[in-house]
Structures are given as structure tokens and as C-alpha cells.
């Protein structure tokens, strides 16, 4: 039978933290410390104690979180929607057709979805560990224009919580300027599930970036990149990029398809070059 003191602490941790939003963090910390002492002294169920402690910590941290505005919650939901839709598309292995296979094994596939249109899927292996690739694509996002010839500029417009961003991207004109200047406003979210990282996004709107003169406001999404260590070789990263874009304007589909599949191939090439320079210390961050 559990000691009376233990019952009291557990009850406060599990119930009071849920119901009393004004509880201060100091009280939550004290409860957690008391539970730690009791777990060492008592022969009771240590697993249950650990569960209560984790709930106490989680609930107390939630009480301290800054509440999101209605617009911020909308961005979070959009990012989550992009993530779920992207993973659903990638999870369906049927119907993919090969667009391009490079000499180094890089592969671009495509399929047509009734509610989305044509989507492209890049599958490559990067000779760098996952954390390094993730850092380049997420932490150094605004530097992408320095090494990716398809991107002129990426600017973070707003951060919402830890995992959601709103960005403005300006596309660089392709050779011959056959597509013309495009820009995007996107909501992006990142999730890490075990050793797998998912970076998802889709088009949105933001008051700080209305449509710009001289640019066609294109739309993307759902789109995502999935990063995971290569099986049997954790120093390498398998990258899968789902690309879905509506470039808008009057462009033949044959040209659009050619541009988008080549964009993915070029991205892999230049990402490897960037990562190699970073590993050698020749790129400054």
C-alpha cells in the first residue's frame, strides 16, 4: 500500500496541475523533487512513479506556454495538415513512374493525384550524417540562396512556437527564363520521430508579404522532405523530397514537368557540394 504522502503528491501532480492553470512552476518542481525522493525510499511501483513525474513535468510546461493567437493556431494546423498529407502520399507506393535516373543513382519519380495534380519524388543518398543535413536545410534555411541555383532568396517572416515557420521564397529564373519570376509564401513545420526527420510545408498567406510586383505568386504543397540515416551506414543520410507545385500562368505542362524534375536533380547535386564544402570548413556559417 502506498504511503499517504506519496498518494497526496501523486494526486496533486496528476489532478491539480490539470485543473488549476494558475499553479506556478515552483510548485511543479517541488512536486517532482518529492516524487524523486519517494521513488528512492519506497518499494512501490517505480514505473507508475515515473509516469506521474513525466505527466507533472509535461503539464507544468504547458501551463507556462504562451497561448497562441487564432492566426498562429491556423498556421500550426496548416503545417500539420501539410505533414500528414505528404506522408500519406509518400506512403502509397503504387502508381509512381520514373522520370529521371542519374548515373550516381539519384532518382526522380512522379505520379498524378486526383486532388493534387502531378507530384514529384526525389530519392537520394547524401554522404553526410542526418544532423548535418538537417542543420543545413532547417537551421541555415535563409542561406539556401547562396548554394541552390533554383532559389534566389528565402526569408523567414514569422516563427510560431518551436516547429512552425512562415517563409517567403523567391525562385531564381531558370536558364532562358522560360518560366519567369515566381515567389511563394509558405508555412513550414518540422517533426522528429526517432531517427527520422520530416520537413513539411504548403502555401499560405501572410500580411507582411502580399503579392509582389513583377512576380507571379505560385503555390506549393503539400510538400515535404524526409531524412533518415541510411540503413547500415549512419554517417550517410537518405533524403526523400516530395515536390508539388502550381507555377500558375500559361505554361505548357511539358515545360513545367521538365523544369520541376530537373530542379530536384540540381538540388541534390548542389546540396552535396554545399555539405562537402561545409565539412572541409570552406563555407562560413
UniProtKB/TrEMBL annotation:
Pathway: Steroid metabolism; cholesterol metabolism. Keywords: Lipid transport, Lipid-binding, Mitochondrion, Steroidogenesis, Transit peptide, Transport. GO terms for cellular component: mitochondrion. It is found in: Mitochondrion. Plays a key role in steroid hormone synthesis by enhancing the metabolism of cholesterol into pregnenolone. Mediates the transfer of cholesterol from the outer mitochondrial membrane to the inner mitochondrial membrane where it is cleaved to pregnenolone. May interact with TSPO. This is Steroidogenic acute regulatory protein, mitochondrial. It comes from Bambusicola thoracicus (Chinese bamboo-partridge).
